[in-house]
From TrEMBL:
<keyword id="KW-0129">CBS domain</keyword>
<protein>
    <submittedName>
        <fullName>CBS domain-containing protein</fullName>
    </submittedName>
</protein>
<dbReference type="Pfam" id="PF00571">
    <property type="entry name" value="CBS"/>
</dbReference>
<dbReference type="InterPro" id="IPR046342">
    <property type="entry name" value="CBS_dom_sf"/>
</dbReference>
<feature type="domain" description="CBS">
    <location>
        <begin position="86"/>
        <end position="139"/>
    </location>
</feature>
<dbReference type="InterPro" id="IPR051257">
    <property type="entry name" value="Diverse_CBS-Domain"/>
</dbReference>
<dbReference type="InterPro" id="IPR000644">
    <property type="entry name" value="CBS_dom"/>
</dbReference>
<feature type="domain" description="CBS">
    <location>
        <begin position="11"/>
        <end position="68"/>
    </location>
</feature>
Length: 139
């Protein structure tokens, strides 16, 4: 395994994004259609937050009905905006950050995705799944 491999080798660069004016219904649709769990929230090319599928589950009543249920109770969507639900104090990395450094960050934090930002612009996203797939490819 190469120790200095940059995260740009494993990150998703064709990133699906939302902006703060989108509705939570749009977010749920994007999560399900694309089979993803994290969506950066942007203003132009600048990332302002990160929304996870878990964030939607937290504001719904789905877990009160059935813990194995994957459907979200969309009644609550009208009560919240993306800006209210998204994570705002983000940790980000640059495209030259090493995969090892990304692994260290993700192993110590309680989140599973990092935006990749160069010169203030969103360039990609790297997730724990990307990291695991990379590590599996090393064997």
């Amino acid at each position: 395994m190469k120790k200095r491999t940059p995260v740009s080798k494993i990150m998703t660069s064709d990133v699906i994004t939302l902006n703060q004016t989108n509705g939570l219904e749009t977010a749920e649709m994007l999560f399900k259609q694309n089979k993803i769990r994290h969506i950066p929230v942007v203003n132009g090319n600048t990332i302002i937050g990160m929304l996870s599928y878990t964030d939607l589950l937290r504001i719904s009543f789905a877990d009160a009905v059935n813990e194995s249920e994957q459907d979200i109770d969309t009644v609550v969507y009208g009560m919240f905006t993306i800006e209210q639900v998204m994570a705002k104090n983000l940790v980000s990395v640059t495209s030259s950050t090493t995969i090892k450094e990304v692994a260290e960050i993700l192993s110590k934090k309680e989140f599973h995705a990092l935006p990749v930002v160069d010169d203030g612009k969103l360039k990609g996203i790297v997730t724990t799944t990307d990291l695991i797939n990379y590590l599996l490819g090393q064997f």
